[in-house]
Write a structure and sequence with these properties.
- It is built from 6 helices and no strands.
- The chain is mostly helical.
- α1 (about 5-40) runs antiparallel to α2, α1 (about 5-40) runs parallel beside α6 and α2 packs antiparallel against α3 (about 75-95).
- The chain has one domain.
- It has helices at about 5-40, 40-70, 75-95, 100-105, 105-130, 135-165.
Length: about 170
């Protein structure tokens, strides 16, 4: 098997893992923080995570599928590999955020989820930087900075909805 064939086949795998992990962390954290700020409801936060794990994972997998199909250099194998791996990775990553909710009170679980997200994004950033032969900390800072913006904006939206609805 030629080197470019191996690279093409692994490209779909890497696309799915990296996209699914990053999206799984960022989307799920935004949802958790926003729903907590807006409702302070364990049912809302838990239900939101499970809905994200299923529907948003499928949506992201479909988006990756379309994106990969649009690439002139993609193969059927790499398209489907990226699609399936994106779904499975995002589903798994999003589902891991349920664990703190099962063992901690809601407020502590939200903090635990944020810490878990920071750990996952840090490890992902370090892996990507090393793979590209670059220093890890600029990538870590960039990715955690993006996560922070998402968390803060989601918190503000949750508080705004809470105040607007007077819940």
């Amino acid at each position: 098997m030629a080197e470019n064939e191996v690279t093409e086949k692994s490209r779909g795998l890497l696309t799915g893992v990296f996209f699914g992990t990053g999206s799984g962390v960022i989307t799920t954290l935004g949802l958790i923080v926003g729903l907590f700020a807006g409702t302070e409801s364990m049912a809302a936060v838990m239900g939101g995570i499970l809905v994200i794990a299923v529907s948003d994972s499928m949506s992201d997998a479909f988006g990756i599928h379309l994106s990969e199909e649009a690439r002139p250099d993609s193969t059927t194998h790499s398209v489907w590999m990226a699609t399936v791996v994106t779904f499975l990775t995002k589903f798994f990553v999003a589902s891991t955020f349920v664990l703190p909710l099962l063992v901690l009170p809601l407020q502590q679980a939200v903090v635990g989820c944020v810490l878990w997200g920071i750990i996952v994004l840090t490890l992902l950033s370090i892996f990507i930087a090393r793979q590209q032969g670059q220093a890890a900390w600029p990538a870590v800072a960039e990715h955690l900075g993006i996560a922070t913006v998402v968390i803060v904006l989601s918190w503000m939206v949750g508080l705004g909805v809470h105040r607007w609805l007077g819940v």
